[in-house]
Write a structure and sequence with these properties.
The structure holds two protein chains of two kinds.
Chain A: H1 9-26, H2 28-31, E1 35-37, H3 45-50, E2 54-56, H4 58-67, H5 71-80, H6 89-99, E3 116-120, H7 124-137, E4 141-145, H8 156-178, H9 184-206, H10 221-224, H11 226-229, H12 236-255, E5 260-261, E6 264-265, E7 271-276, H13 284-292, E8 296-301, H14 321-331, H15 338-351, E9 356-362, H16 366-369, H17 372-383, E10 387-392, H18 402-420
Parallel strand pairs in A: 1-2, 3-4, 7-8, 7-9, 9-10
Antiparallel strand pairs in A: 5-6
Helix pairs in contact in A: 1-12, 4-6, 5-6, 8-14, 9-12, 13-18, 15-17
Chain B: H1 13-23, H2 29-37, E1 43-46, H3 53-58, E2 62-65, H4 89-98, E3 107-111, H5 115-127, E4 132-136, H6 144-166, H7 172-198, H8 205-213, H9 220-235, E5 245-250, H10 259-267, E6 270-274, H11 294-305, H12 318-330, E7 334-340, H13 344-359, E8 364-369, H14 377-392
Parallel strand pairs in B: 1-2, 1-3, 3-4, 5-6, 5-7, 7-8
Helix pairs in contact in B: 1-8, 6-11, 7-9, 8-10, 10-14, 12-13
Classes of the chains: A alpha/beta, B alpha/beta.
């Protein structure tokens, strides 16, 4: 196994962006910089940044804690304080971290929240998470209720409701916190940059339609979505990142190179899969290895749409800043109906010519997980391709059973192999 | 302290028996009979926690509460759709759908209780494509000009859809008439709870539960009349006062506790002075106004008069203050948190409420259940110990 991994220019840039970001957060109090805690789906990053406020994303902190093997202890700390074993591990990781002094994943202190912007998009737990943080820190919550697409569509009333909340509550609260007036032209500039980086991201993700795929559309793609789903959408740095990433992927296409993994170049592509559900962050590389070691590349995933669905044509529109933010919030993956989710996965299986699809069902996230067994059946019915299913968790290491998952993945891939060689009809 | 076994006072026994038969009507035969007796009429189901049953009524249809199947139905098909870490209610609801019991319903409203119920609405749409399915997104922004306005618009849309299902358009007049019927029903339920607080020995909790739960299947006026009849008989009963611990129960607003669990709590020495099960039947304290635009009225009352339910986003301090006020109003001595396993709203809220009442020096105990829990000995010991502690403190 080749353990020497060359980092691309984009990777180096993202690493620097994240380091700078956490450093800014660490010194924000002494510099008088205010922050806004918010969530990834339905985040209003450009709007927050347009007031020179710092976005803080507790989900990102929790998943970073998971990847750095810190979340297990945080979760136990929260459970000792009375939080149920049954509820979301992101919340408990965040609370454990807070109770331990709010030292972030990089080892630097995180500021306590100045405002909890409760972008209530596609996840019930978000609402309670920020109520808990409000109790713990005394920071105020600001509700942005984004109606769920229960009927599989966005109505004029839903859109108007979100815009009215932005105009009459969110913007005034950000003005008050920052001491600055709302500057729509500045917001529009950022949205124009977002639009450009969204083009580049879609180009990168759709490159996986090629054979062999130059990227992994799940494990590698969670790095690709990092800047655009978090504190950097609309920034110049992020725009450069996506342009560099696009150029690197184009270069790989030109050279016929497949995805790079933490263990080096991926073996020749043998299986093409679609994945539904978030990764198990505590065992991220181990889970990835179970796939790439078998020559299985993930060509598309739903998790990489959780902070914005761009491959169906949506782009932020700088000519309608608040309308486009409403459209963005309403369109996030977990804010979509069950039928939409089924259709999206089925479309990926067909468009990316996948051999099948696997569902990673995480205990923490009912928004994703409740109904996945029906999704499995429906996508199989619509595509005629087989689905596989395994269970883990976002950041609770107690729910990652490596042997069971490996067994499931390998059995599934063997089944695909047998189907290919005619075994299915035997 | 071990309390004596509580038995129904004889005069109310026939009513209680009827209500228990309704609880056990897992094939929805009651609804079938209603439809037979009302040719051409339709029935619309709704799930916990709250749904606008007034709209169903105004469209000339029977609102039917789909509250799960407790421990009286073996779950076979329902389990095939859910992982082990999902609560029990959606399993039994799916089982009822897949075994044909809910065929009698012409549609179902799924309120925005949590992500599981929300996703169940999408599953229902896929599994039962011939039926009307509607997700009811209640306003989490409580400003009337924001959440209230959105909700009023959505209620209008739902009313129009229900009118199409029934063939009877919802008008302002028919909706006001439905408000009047449901106002009377809520007042009856509030009065029943007030009687319970005043004379808990006259209204055993299991009977109170059965009485309210009967409203899931009965026409609203019939339900109101049944409650009133029960109250008359119960007030006149010769039941003797008993000195038991007085507790408030919280956490069972969605997946319902098995009836024997409620009996167990009371048999362990606790009067349940207040609870949040079947909370839809007393969601509003005030009447829905009968003047003006009914959709706006309903939305306004929803954003101003909804209970501090964990399914809602509440302003800072409201949930603790609301519970403390209820404890004071009902003379409760402590709180028993009774949450269903894997219930996100209840379990995420619980530590915050516990912290609030601890600050006020109010004792509490907590237990978990599922709607199909069948063993109560441990719960009886826990509740009994809590009751003893309250009496000794």
């Amino acid at each position: 196994m080749n353990t020497t991994v060359m980092k691309d220019r984009s990777q180096e840039r993202q690493k620097r962006m994240l380091a700078d970001y956490f450093k800014r957060l660490a010194v924000s109090r002494e510099n008088g910089w205010k922050n806004v805690y918010t969530f990834v789906p339905g985040n209003l990053t450009e709007l927050i940044l347009s007031f020179d406020l710092l976005p803080v994303l507790p989900e990102i902190n929790a998943l970073q804690s998971g990847m750095r093997k810190k979340s297990g202890a945080f979760i136990q700390e929260a459970e000792k304080a009375g939080h149920s074993e049954d509820v979301c591990a992101y919340v408990k990781s965040d609370l454990g971290m807070l109770r331990g002094g709010n030292i972030g994943p990089t080892g630097e202190p995180l500021p306590s929240p100045d405002l909890l912007l409760l972008s209530y998009t596609g996840c019930f737990t978000f609402m309670k998470w920020f109520e808990i943080l409000r109790e713990e820190t005394g920071a105020p919550t600001l509700m942005l209720h984004v109606p769920f697409q229960g009927e599989g569509r966005v109505t004029r009333e839903m859109r108007d409701y979100v815009i009215r909340q932005l105009k009459t509550e969110v913007i005034p609260a950000l003005e008050k916190l920052s001491g600055k007036a709302y500057d729509e032209s500045r917001l529009a500039e950022m949205l124009a940059r977002s639009r450009a980086m969204e083009d580049d991201l879609v180009h990168v993700l759709e490159s996986a339609k090629r054979k062999p795929s130059p990227i992994d559309g799940y494990f590698a793609a969670v790095y690709y979505i990092g800047p655009i789903f978090s504190a950097f959408r609309g920034t110049e740095d992020a725009q450069h990142y996506y342009r560099e990433l696009r150029e690197e992927v184009d270069a790989r296409i030109a050279q016929g190179i497949g995805p790079m993994t933490p263990d080096g170049p991926m073996p020749p592509e043998k299986f093409r899969l679609v994945v539904e559900g978030p990764p198990a962050w505590t065992h991220f590389n181990e889970l990835w290895r179970m796939f790439h070691a078998e020559g299985a590349v993930i060509v598309a995933s739903t998790y990489t749409k959780v902070g914005g669905v761009y491959d169906d044509g949506f782009r932020h529109d700088p000519s309608d800043p608040l309308g486009t933010l409403a459209d963005y919030c309403l369109g996030c993956y977990t804010n979509r109906s069950m039928q939409d989710r089924v259709n999206m996965i089925a479309r990926y299986v067909k468009d990316y010519d996948a051999d099948g699809f696997m569902i990673n069902s995480v205990k923490s996230c009912n928004s994703f997980s409740a109904g996945q067994l029906l999704i499995l059946r429906e996508v199989e019915r619509l595509t005629g391709r087989p689905g596989g299913f395994f269970e883990s968790d976002l950041v609770d290491p107690r729910y990652f059973s490596a042997a069971n998952i490996k067994n499931r993945v390998e059995s599934y891939l063997q089944m695909l192999d047998q189907r290919r060689t005619g075994g299915a009809s035997a | 302290m071990e309390a004596p076994v509580i038995t129904a006072p004889a005069p109310v026994a026939p009513i209680v028996e009827r209500c228990e038969a309704l609880l056990n009507d897992l094939t929805f035969e009651t609804v079938r009979q209603w439809k037979e007796n009302h040719p051409g009429k339709k029935a619309i189901g709704w799930l916990p926690v709250w749904a606008p049953r007034e709209l169903i009524l105004a469209a000339g249809m029977l609102p039917v509460g789909v509250m799960g199947a407790s421990d009286r139905l073996e779950i076979v098909k329902g389990d095939a759709y859910y992982q082990s870490y999902i609560c029990h209610l959606p399993r039994s609801v799916l089982e009822l759908g897949l075994n044909g019991s809910l065929d009698v319903l012409d549609g179902v409203l799924f309120p925005s209780t949590c992500d599981v119920i929300r996703n169940l609405s999408g599953m229902w749409r896929i599994l039962f494509p011939q039926k009307y399915v509607r997700y009811v997104d209640v306003p989490q922004n409580p400003a009337m000009s924001l959440g209230g306005r959105f909700f009023a618009e959505d209620l209008r849309a739902i009313a129009a859809e229900l009118g199409e299902v029934s063939g009877t358009p919802v008008t302002h007049e028919s909706l006001r008439a439905a408000f009047a019927v449901c106002n009377a029903n809520r007042r009856a339920v509030h009065d029943l709870y007030a009687l319970r607080v005043a004379k808990p020995w006259c209204v055993p909790s299991a009977e109170l539960y059965l009485l309210v739960r009967a409203g899931a299947l009965l026409p609203v006026e019939e339900h109101t009349a049944l409650i009133r009849e029960y109250m008359q008989l119960a007030e006149a009963s010769a039941a003797k006062p008993m000195d038991m611990a007085r507790v408030t129960v919280r956490g069972c607003f969605c997946e319902q506790p098995p009836l024997d669990l409620i009996r167990t709590i009371e048999r362990s020495g606790c009067w349940i002075m207040d609870d949040d099960w079947l909370i839809a039947w007393r969601w509003f304290k005030e009447d829905l106004p009968l003047e003006g635009d009914p959709f706006e009225n309903m939305a306004r009352v929803f954003v101003t008069d909804s209970p501090a339910c964990p399914t809602m986003h509440l302003a800072h301090g409201v949930k603790g203050a609301a519970l403390k006020a209820e404890i004071k109003n009902t003379g409760s001595e402590g709180v028993l948190f009774m949450a269903p396993s894997f219930c996100d709203p209840a379990l995420l809220d619980q530590p915050m409420i516990q912290a609030a009442i601890e600050k006020a020096g109010i004792p509490w105990s907590a237990l978990l259940y599922a709607e199909n829990t069948g063993q109560f000995q441990v719960i009886r010991e826990q509740a009994g110990t809590f009751a003893d502690a309250l009496k000794l403190s």
